[in-house]
Sequence to fold (71 residues):
Amino acid sequence: GSVDIVIEQTQDYLFQFTLELLIKDTSGERIEKVKIKDKVTKLEVKASGPLEITPDPHVNLLFKALQDPLA
Fold:
């Protein structure tokens, strides 16, 4: 299976940076690096079984993570 992820920059000035995502599923865990430069970045993460995603697991950036209230 897969999960769609949307990353949105809400500030007026857009930053360019690499965001690490820690992906954990039944096959183990891995880090995926996503280049962020646009107002909205969409990506698809492939996963097997239950999935846990931790943005910026090593706290390289300061940000506010929001979960979709409809999820």
